[in-house]
UniProtKB/TrEMBL annotation:
May play the central regulatory role in sporulation. It may be an element of the effector pathway responsible for the activation of sporulation genes in response to nutritional stress. Spo0A may act in concert with spo0H (a sigma factor) to control the expression of some genes that are critical to the sporulation process. It comes from Natranaerovirga hydrolytica. Pfam families: HATPase_c (PF02518), HisKA (PF00512), Hpt (PF01627), Peripla_BP_3 (PF13377), Response_reg (PF00072). It comes from the Bacteria. In the N-terminal section; belongs to the phytochrome family. The modification Phosphohistidine is found at residue 1075. The lineage of its organism: Bacteria, Bacillati, Bacillota, Clostridia, Lachnospirales. This is Circadian input-output histidine kinase CikA. One of its GO terms (cellular component) is plasma membrane.
C-alpha cells in the first residue's frame, strides 16, 4: 500500500487509548511527517491474553509483510506478557523480513528502545531517603508476567541495598496488575491483613505505575490518611492524571514523548541512509517532584542527567544558560516555536533588570495558551521554570535581583497552576462531551438492520468525530479471511466515495490501488470481528486522537455488521421458509390431483394384480411341475446306479461286472450332464458367466457337430444335414464353446422330438459391418411341433411344451432357457416357428468379430519377413535362467536362445530355480508355471523378495492363455507371459525386447501369428507339422529328429502315469500331466495331440472318469500314429525327417 516515492512505516500496538500509547503514536507521526513517509498504526490484541476474549483481533498481524510496510515499530512489552520466550520469538519471526525496532522491551537481537528503569527507581529511593530521610519504604509490585514490572521491582531492591536500607518483606505486596484497583488492594493488604500503620511502620510508598499510585491515593483518602503528612507516595510514568489529582503525585517521567520520535527517526535513518541501529538504546528517565512526597515546591533533580544538561560551570553568561536549557526543545511537540527556550530566558532577563517590563509573564502566557490549545503537557514548562531557577540563582549577586527573580517565578507558578487547572477541567469536559457525542452518534449503528443505513450512519459519525477518511472492507469467506475481501465503504475529505461494484482484492493490499491516497497520510488499521466471527477490517485516516474513540467506534461497527449479517441470514431463512411453505402448498394441490388420478390408477392396478396373482399361481404350478420332473430326472440315474452297484456286489462273473460298471458310468455321466445344466443356468442368472472371445474356425465347429449328430440321427432313422452359405468367412472371434452349447441343446431337442423325417442345420448371414458379422442359425425338424399358445413359454425356465411331453420324452426344460440366456450374451435373439404335428424351426442370431485374413498370403508374407529379419548375436553377453521340468521344452527353448548367442542355465523345478537365482546373477528368468515340487508362481514370489532379483525381468511360460490367468501371473510379479505354443521369431523378439528395451516385432505380427496358429490347429491333417518345426529349429533336421524322439519317449511314460492316476481317481495329477503334455505337443507343432491333451485336461476338471479314460485311449492311439508318421518320414528321407 505504498508507492516508490513514499515509504510506509508500521506501528504495531495492542491499543492506542492510553496516554503512553497515544504519546508513542504522536511521536512517530511527527517524524514520519517530517520525512514525508506514511504511518500505519496496526491495532490487534495481546496474544494469549487470559483476561481478554478478543483473540480474533490478532488476525490483523498476518496482514503485515514487506509489500505493505518498509519498516516496523512495535510496542514489544505488551507482546510477551503471556507468551513464553519461544512463542515470543515465533511471533516476531513473522516480521523477520522487515526492518524493525521495538519499544520498552528487547526481543532477542531486534533493536530496542529501553526505559532506564534502574535509574528511575533509584532516583525515587534516593529522593525519599536523601531529601526526606524516609527509611521505612513500602513497594507495590506490578504483575509477575510483566517484564517492566519485574525490572522495577529488582531496581527497588538494588536501590535499597545501595543506601543500606532494610528491605522488609511485610512492606512489599504480592504481584498486582497495573490498575487503580491494585492500589486499593495494596492498602488493604498493608493495613487490614498485615496490621501496619502509617508513620510508625510505613513512611513512604513506591508504586511501579501512576495508575497504582492513583488507586493508593484514593484508598488512603477513604481511610482519612493524609498525603504526604501521614505517608509519602510516589509513582512512575508521569501520567496526565498524576498531576491532576490532589496532591499531585511525585513520579518518574520516562520521557514517553521521545520514544515514538526516536524509534521513527532511527528507523528512517536506517531505511534511507543505511545507518545501523544499535541493539539496545536506553532512554534516561527524569524525576518529577510534586507535593505527594512532601516537597512544597518544585525542586531540582539531584541526579545528573547528561541528556538535558551540560557539565559547564554556571556563569553570569546568559548564553551558557540558554545552551544548558535548549535540550527542553526535545520535550515538546510542534505546538511551540523552535526558539522558545531562548526567548523565555531573554524575556526573563529583561523583566529581571526592568521592573516595569512584563515581557516574561506575557510570553509565558502565550506558551501556556499554545500548550492548552494542542492539549500537550504543561508540566514541561513547570520543569523548565525549576531548571531555570537552578541555573539563574548562582548568577544573582544582589538581593534585589534575587527578590525580583523569586517574584517572577512565583507569578509563573501561579500562571502554570491556573493553566493546569484549566487543562484538567477542559480535559474532563471534553471527555464527557466525547462520550456523550459518541453515545448519541453510535445509536444509529446499534439500531439499524440495513447495511445501506449503517454506512450512511457511519458517514455522519465520521463527520461528527472529525475523522477525515475511512475505508471498510469485509472478508468474502469468514472461515478463510485472508483469501479475499471486498471494499464496501470509502470516505475521504468529509464525503462518502462512490465505489465501483464488486471491488474484490487481497486483504494484505489493505486497499485497492485506485483508492490509496496520493498524499502523505497516517492511518489506523483495526480488525472488525464479533467474538470468533471474522468480519473484515477498517482503515481510519487519523483525526483527533481522543482516548478510545477509534476502539469504541470499531466495536460498534463490528456489532452492527454482525447484527446485519445475522439479520440477512434470518431474512434469507425466512424467505426460504416462505418459499418452502408456498411450494408445499403447491405440492399439496398437486398431490390432491395425483390422488384422484391414482385412485383411478389403483383400480386399474387391482385388476392387474388379479392377473399377476393368476400368473404367479401358474408360475408356482410350473415350478412345482419342474421340481417334480427334476426329482424324477435326478432319481432315475441314481436309482440305476444304486441298483447296478447292488447287483455288482453279488455278481462274480467278470464279464457281467464289466457290463454293469459301464452302465454305472453312463448313468453317472447323464447325472453329471443334468447337474452341469443346472449350474450353468445358475451362473447365468447370477451374472457370473461371461463369454471368452477367442479366434475359432466356424466350419470346423459345425462339421464336428455334423460328424456327431449325423450318426445319432441315423441310428434313429433320421436324416441330418448341414448347409453353410458360401459368403460367410470361416475364421471368427467369439466364444465357440457357448455357441456349440446352444447348437447342441437345440439339435438334441430336434432329434429327441422327431420320430421320422429329418433335422437340418442352416447357417446364413443376417448383416455385416467392417469389423463384425451377425449370423442366423436355423434348426429345422419334422417332429411333433408345439402348440401355438405354448410357443412363447418354451424359452421360460421350468417350461416344456406340455407336461405330458416331459413324461414321454424326458428332460428338464432347462436347455432352451439356457440357450436363450447364452444367445442374449452373444448380442443375439432366439425364437421358434412351429406347427403342431408338422415340425418346428428353432432360430437364433449371434454376433461375432471378423478375423478376415488371407491365411496363405499372410503366412507367406510373415515367413518372408521372418526370413529377411536379422536377429542380433549377443555372443554370450547375456545369461538366462530357464525353469522348465519338461526336457523336450528345455531343449527347444535352449536351441532358440543359443542361436542368438544367449547362455542358458536350466532348473528342473521351482526349488532349483530359486537356489540358482540366489547363487547367480541372471539377465532374465524364464519361468514355467506348472512344475513339480514348487511351481512357477511360488518361485516368482520368492525371487521378488530377493534384493538381487527385485528388478530382474521374469517371463512366465504357460499353455493357459485365459485373460484371468495372465492377470494373476502378472499380479504376483511376472513382467510378461509367453503362451505355448510359441514360434521361434516371436519368442526371441519378446526375449530381445526385455533384454534391450527394443521392440523387434510390431503388434500386427502377433495377431497374424495367432491367426496362422489357429489355421494350423484346425487344418493340419498330419499328426505333426514337421516342416514348421524344422524351420523353427533353423533347418536342423538332426535336432528335429532328436527332439521329436525325445517327446515320444517322455510321453509314453507320462501316458502310463495318467493310466495309474485315473485308476486312483487322482484328477489333480491327471490335469497337471495333461497340461504338461499339451504345452510340449504345441511346441513341437503336434496340434492334434495337443488338442486331445486339452480335452483330457477339461474332462478331469469335471472329474469325469469315463470320458477321461476314453480320451486317454485316443491319446495312446494318436501317439502310435505320431510315431508311425515320424518313422515313415525317416524311411523316406534316409534317416532324416525332411
Amino acid at each position: 500500500m505504498y508507492t516508490e516515492e513514499r515509504m510506509n512505516i508500521g506501528y504495531v500496538t495492542p491499543f492506542i487509548w492510553g496516554d503512553i500509547s497515544l504519546t508513542y503514536l504522536k511521536g512517530a507521526m511527527q517524524v514520519t511527517e517530517e520525512h514525508n513517509a506514511n504511518l500505519i498504526c496496526i491495532i490487534g490484541q495481546k496474544p494469549k491474553d487470559p483476561h481478554n476474549n478478543n483473540s480474533s483481533a490478532n488476525i490483523i498481524y498476518d496482514f503485515i509483510d514487506k509489500k505493505n510496510v518498509n519498516g516496523l515499530i512495535a510496542w514489544a512489552s505488551h507482546y510477551n506478557q503471556y507468551l513464553t520466550s519461544e512463542e515470543t520469538l515465533a511471533f516476531f519471526k513473522k516480521f523477520s523480513e522487515i526492518p524493525i525496532i521495538t519499544i520498552s522491551n528487547r526481543i532477542n537481537n531486534i533493536p530496542a528502545l529501553i526505559t532506564d528503569n534502574e535509574n528511575g527507581i533509584h532516583s525515587l529511593v534516593s529522593h525519599l531517603y536523601n531529601v526526606h530521610g524516609y527509611k521505612k519504604i513500602a513497594f507495590v509490585r506490578g504483575p509477575s508476567y510483566h517484564n517492566v514490572a519485574q525490572k522495577r521491582y529488582h531496581a527497588f531492591l538494588n536501590a535499597m541495598k545501595t543506601y543500606n536500607l532494610e528491605v522488609n518483606a511485610d512492606l512489599i505486596t504480592t504481584p498486582l496488575p497495573f490498575s487503580e484497583a491494585s492500589g486499593h488492594t495494596a492498602v488493604t493488604l498493608f493495613v487490614d491483613e498485615r496490621n501496619l500503620s502509617f508513620q510508625k511502620d510505613i513512611e513512604a510508598i513506591i508504586c511501579p505505575s501512576d495508575f497504582i499510585a492513583l488507586g493508593v491515593s484514593n484508598a488512603l483518602k477513604k481511610r482519612h490518611v493524609k498525603i504526604p503528612n501521614d505517608v509519602a507516595l510516589v509513582g512512575f510514568n508521569n501520567k496526565r492524571e498524576s498531576i491532576m489529582c490532589n496532591p499531585p503525585i511525585t513520579t518518574i517521567d520516562p520521557r514517553n514523548t521521545t520514544y515514538g520520535k526516536i524509534a521513527a527517526r532511527l528507523l528512517m535513518n536506517n531505511l534511507v541512509h543505511g545507518t545501523e541501529i544499535k541493539t539496545v538504546n536506553y532512554i534516561p528517565t527524569k524525576l518529577i517532584v510534586r507535593r505527594s512526597c512532601g516537597c512544597l515546591e518544585p525542586m531540582a533533580n539531584t541526579q545528573d542527567d547528561s541528556l538535558f544538561f551540560s557539565n559547564e560551570k554556571y556563569t553570569e553568561d546568559i548564553e551558557a544558560i540558554k545552551l544548558s536549557l535548549r535540550t527542553f526543545h526535545s520535550l515538546t511537540l510542534k505546538s511551540l516555536e523552535h526558539l522558545w527556550v531562548d526567548k523565555m530566558i531573554d524575556y526573563f532577563n529583561t523583566s529581571l533588570h526592568n521592573p516595569d517590563s512584563d515581557h516574561f509573564i506575557n510570553y509565558l502566557q502565550h506558551l501556556l495558551d499554545e500548550l492548552k490549545e494542542y492539549e500537550e503537557d504543561i508540566g514541561v514548562i513547570q520543569n523548565f521554570i525549576s531548571e531555570m531557577r537552578k541555573f539563574f540563582l548562582p548568577t544573582l549577586k544582589k538581593n534585589t535581583l534575587i527578590i525580583r527573580a523569586s517574584n517572577l517565578w512565583n507569578q509563573a507558578r501561579v500562571q502554570i497552576n491556573l493553566a493546569t487547572e484549566y487543562t484538567h477541567a477542559n480535559y474532563q469536559k471534553k471527555t464527557d462531551q466525547f462520550l456523550v457525542s459518541l453515545h448519541s452518534t453510535t445509536q444509529t449503528l446499534t439500531t439499524t438492520y440495513s447495511l445501506t443505513d449503517l454506512l450512511e450512519g457511519i458517514s455522519k459519525i465520521l463527520v461528527d468525530l472529525q475523522i477525515p477518511g475511512c475505508y471498510i472492507s469485509l472478508y468474502t469467506n469468514s472461515q478463510k479471511p485472508l483469501n479475499e475481501c471486498q471494499l464496501i465503504f470509502g470516505f475521504n475529505h468529509n464525503k462518502r466515495l462512490v465505489l465501483e461494484d464488486n471491488l474484490y482484492y487481497n486483504p494484505k493490499e489493505l486497499l485497492p490501488k485506485k483508492y490509496i491516497p496520493s498524499y502523505r497520510y497516517t492511518m489506523i488499521l483495526h480488525p472488525l470481528y464479533f467474538k470468533d466471527y471474522q468480519l473484515g477490517f477498517v482503515l481510519f485516516e487519523v483525526g483527533p486522537l481522543e482516548k478510545a474513540n477509534y476502539h469504541i467506534l470499531c466495536n460498534e461497527i463490528s456489532s452492527a455488521l454482525y447484527r446485519i449479517k445475522m439479520f440477512e441470514q434470518l431474512k434469507t431463512s425466512e424467505k426460504q421458509r416462505t418459499d418452502l411453505l408456498r411450494e408445499l402448498e403447491e405440492k399439496n394441490q398437486e398431490l390432491e390431483l395425483k390422488i384422484k388420478k391414482r385412485t383411478a390408477a389403483i383400480q386399474k392396478v387391482n385388476e392387474q394384480l388379479k392377473n399377476a396373482i393368476h400368473e404367479a399361481r401358474s408360475a408356482n404350478l410350473a415350478k412345482s411341475r419342474f421340481l417334480a420332473n427334476m426329482s424324477h430326472e435326478i432319481r432315475t440315474p441314481l436309482n440305476c446306479i444304486i441298483g447296478f452297484v447292488e447287483i455288482l456286489n453279488v455278481t462274480k462273473s467278470k464279464t457281467e461286472q464289466k457290463e454293469y460298471i459301464n452302465l454305472i458310468i453312463e448313468e453317472s455321466e447323464r447325472l453329471m450332464e443334468l447337474i452341469n445344466q443346472i449350474l450353468d443356468f445358475s451362473k447365468i442368472e447370477s451374472g457370473k458367466l461371461s463369454l471368452n472371445n477367442e479366434p475359432f474356425n466356424l466350419n470346423t465347429l459345425l462339421e464336428s457337430l455334423t460328424s456327431t449328430y449325423s450318426t445319432i440321427a441315423s441310428n434313429k432313422g433320421l436324416d441330418y444335414t448341414l448347409t453353410i452359405h458360401s459368403d460367410i468367412g470361416e475364421h471368427l472371434i467369439g466364444d465357440s464353446i457357448r455357441l456349440r452349447q446352444v447348437l447342441v441343446n437345440l439339435i438334441n431337442n430336434a432329434i429327441k422330438f422327431t420320430y421320422k423325417g429329418s433335422v437340418h442345420l442352416l447357417v446364413t448371414k443376417e448383416n455385416e459391418s467392417h469389423d463384425h458379422i451377425t449370423l442366423l442359425f436355423e434348426i429345422k425338424d419334422t417332429g411333433i411341433g408345439i402348440k401355438e399358445n405354448r410357443q412363447k413359454e418354451i424359452f421360460n425356465l421350468f417350461e416344456q411344451a406340455e407336461n405330458s411331453t416331459t413324461r414321454k420324452y424326458g428332460g428338464t426344460g432347462l436347455g432352451t432357457a439356457i440357450s436363450k440366456q447364452l444367445v442374449e450374451l452373444m448380442n443375439g435373439q432366439i425364437g421358434v416357428i412351429s406347427q403342431e404335428n408338422t415340425g418346428s424351426t428353432f432360430w437364433f442370431t449371434a454376433k461375432f468379430q471378423k478375423l478376415d485374413f488371407d491365411f496363405n498370403q499372410t503366412s507367406y508374407n510373415l515367413e518372408k519377413e521372418y526370413a529377411s529379419m536379422s536377429l542380433p548375436d549377443f555372443d554370450g553377453n547375456y545369461k538366462i535362467l530357464l525353469a522348465e521340468d519338461y526336457s523336450t521344452n528345455q531343449r527347444l527353448v535352449s536351441s532358440h536362445l543359443n542361436s542368438i548367442g544367449i547362455k542358458v542355465d536350466i532348473a528342473e523345478n521351482g526349488i532349483i530355480a530359486v537356489n540358482k537365482a540366489k547363487a547367480n546373477a541372471y539377465d532374465l528368468i524364464l519361468m514355467d508355471i506348472q512344475m513339480p515340487e514348487m511351481d512357477g508362481i511360488e518361485a516368482t514370489q520368492i525371487l521378488r523378495n530377493l534384493p538381487k532379483h527385485k528388478q530382474t525381468s521374469i517371463i512366465g511360460l504357460t499353455a493357459n492363455a485365459f485373460e484371468s490367468d495372465i492377470k494373476k501371473y502378472l499380479s504376483i510379479g511376472m513382467n510378461d507371459i509367453i503362451t505355448k505354443p510359441f514360434r521361434k521369431i516371436p519368442f526371441l523378439s519378446k526375449i530381445i525386447q526385455h533384454l534391450t528395451n527394443q521392440e523387434v516385432l510390431q503388434k500386427e505380427h502377433t495377431i497374424h501369428e495367432a491367426a496362422i496358429t489357429l489355421q494350423n490347429e484346425y487344418l493340419t491333417n498330419t499328426p505333426i507339422d514337421i516342416h514348421q518345426l524344422t524351420e523353427d529349429l533353423n533347418g536342423d533336421t538332426d535336432f528335429t529328429y532328436s527332439l521329436t524322439k525325445d517327446f515320444t519317449n517322455i510321453t509314453k511314460e507320462q501316458l502310463k502315469e495318467l493310466e495309474t492316476a485315473l485308476k486312483h481317481k487322482d484328477y489333480q495329477k491327471v490335469e497337471t500331466i495333461a497340461h504338461t503334455i499339451k504345452g510340449a505337443a504345441l511346441n513341437i507343432c503336434a496340434h492334434r495331440f495337443a488338442n486331445l491333451a486339452m480335452d483330457l485336461e477339461d474332462a478331469t476338471k469335471n472329474k469325469s472318469n469315463y470320458s477321461s479314460k476314453l480320451i486317454l485311449n485316443d491319446l495312446v492311439e494318436e501317439l502310435m500314429t505320431l510315431e508311425k508318421y515320424l518313422q515313415n518320414l525317416s524311411n523316406e528321407n534316409d534317416g532324416g525327417l525332411v
